[in-house]
Structures are given as C-alpha cells and as structure tokens.
Amino acid sequence: MHVTIVGCGYVGLELASQLLADGHAVVGVRRSQSGLDAVEALGATAVAADATDPDSLVGLPDTEAVVFAASSGGRGADAARAVYVEGLRNVIREYGARESSPDRLVYTSSTGVYGDHGGDWVDEETPLDPTTDKTRVLVEAERVAREEAAAVGIDGTVARFAGLYGPDRYRLERYLEGPVTAGYLNMVHRDDAAGVVRFLLSEDLARDEVVLVVDDEPADKWTFADWLADECGVERPETRTKRERIAGGDLSTAAERRIRTSKRCSNDRLRALGYEFTYPTYRSGYRAAIAAYRGQ
User: Fold this and answer.
1) SS3 21
2) At 216, phi and psi to the nearest 5?
C-alpha cells in the first residue's frame, strides 16, 4: 500500500515508522526543512507542500491512501479553519481531480467535538455539542472528511483522538507540581494513536465511519496525579475542586469552559474492531517517563 501523510508531525512520524516496518511505501508531507529532514531520517519519501496553499499540492504523488494529520499549531479558530477545513478541502480537491485518486482518507480529529457531558460516557453515537469556535471548526472538518471526500469518490474515516501523550509530551511537572483540578483525563499514547490509523488502513476498516481513539481507562485527574507522584517518589500534589479553581478569578473564558467540560470516552468500538493497545492505560504508557524521572 502507498500512503501519503499530510502533516507528518508528532503522530505522523510514528505512523510512517510503523507503516514502513510493515513494508508499505510512505510519503511524508511537511512545510519546513526540519520537518522534511525528520521524514527522510525514517526512510520515507519527503515532499514539501502546505495544505493551505493549493498550488503547492500539485507536487503530491498519486497514492492509495491519504492521512490528514496536519496541525494548526495550537492557535485559534481562524488558524484551525485554515488548516482543518480549507486545508483538508484543498487536499481532497487536488486528489479528487486526478485520474488516479486515492481509495480512502483518514482525518485525525479530536474528542473536543463532544462538549460537556457532566462526566458521562460518550461514544461514536453520542451527538456532538461543540462549545467553542475551534471545536465547531473541528466538527465542520469532520463533515468535509466524510461528505466532501465521498463526493469525489474517496472513502473518508474520522479518527477522533483523545488527549495525546508520549515522548516529549508527558508533561510530568504539570501533575507532580500541581495544583491539580478535578475532572477526567481521556488519553491515548502517541504510539497507539498512530497504531490505530495503521490498523484501520491495513485491515481496511471503518470506511465512512468515525472511530474514537482513546485508551481503556478514562482517568480521574486526582487519582492519576497521586499515582504518578507515588511512582516518581515525590509528595502528592495539591488538589482543587472545579469550584475552587474557577473561584480564583484568573481564568480566561476559554480556560473556564475547559475546566467545566467533563466526559469519559469509550473505546468499545475500537476494541470490537480488533485493535490491541500497546499501552492500554496510563499505567503502562507512563512507565518510560517515570523511569527517566527517577533516573535524573
């Protein structure tokens, strides 16, 4: 199989590595020279292009599958729209206009599209309720990935990622130093986020469907922080209720909304498809980070 990864960054590089190990041909698309160098270092083919610049996409090779994993760099709704909606649309239009178009597309979305569910469980059938301009953009991008791709003969899949963690993104200090505000953490290790996309492509699963990509155990933040502190051999951090944190009066409207938002994401669908996690919970996923911390 020939796979082109548009936005071959944090998850994309790991995905490329896994696909190459399986014997697939991989093209990694990046904008910067450093990004292109990282793609080449894996042994994949590096192509310079920018999803937000349609003219640059002419140089993308024909391919069997496209993974759209580009990032807006954590910026606001306008930047998110430029990348996730318009950039994705540009890629779909470029490939859809070709005589030999890809068979399928995987778009990497976010569990932020659910909004607040008061700590209840959510799954692929739960109605979406985005509460910010940025998450409303993500919902629109999911529609583009399935409807606009289908209109040009490409089967779209939405892989809805929970919070990513892994190498360079363990953020130990955030939980060890505290204070830690109550709530749930829905997480997936980078290697499994990439692994799920590889699995869906390799096994030809979930065409024109949404799949929630999250590990087995939504974590209570206080429980997680206490466990992490115990494993690292440090004092447990200070904790705060949501009411206490909000009463501090130093939060932006967006930050307060994030604190109020609570849900637990189910991976029953992903498990039913047959995916086996490398890191089924944070307890296995954080082992490398804990070992490194204790070895300082």
Assistant:
1) helix
2) -75, -20
Percent of the chain exceeding pLDDT 90 equals 86
- CA pseudo-torsion sign 142, 148, 152, 153: positive
Q: Is the peptide bond prior to 179 cis by the omega test (within 30 degrees of 0)?
A: yes
Instruction: Give me 31's structure tokens.
Output: 């904008």
- pTM for the predicted model, two decimal places: 0.95
Residue 9 has pLDDT above 90, yes or no: yes
Helical residues (DSSP H) of 48-148, grouped into ranges: 77-80, 88-96, 133-143
Q: Determine the Cα–Cα distance for residues 74 and 247; give it in Å rounded to an integer.
A: 26
H-only helix segments in the chain: 10-21, 33-42, 77-80, 88-96, 133-143, 149-151, 172-176, 190-202, 221-232, 242-247, 253-260, 268-273, 282-285, 287-294
Phi, psi of 52 (to 5 degrees): -80, -5
CA distances from 264 to 24, 74, 163, 267, 289 (A): 35, 23, 12, 10, 24
Q: Which among 123, 147, 167 is positioned nearest to 289, based on CA atoms?
A: 167
CA–CA distances in Å: residue 290 to residues 6, 220, 230, 241, 294: 32, 19, 10, 26, 6
Between the two ends of the chain, the Cα-to-Cα distance in Å is 43
Q: How far apart are CA 152 and CA 222, in angstroms?
A: 47
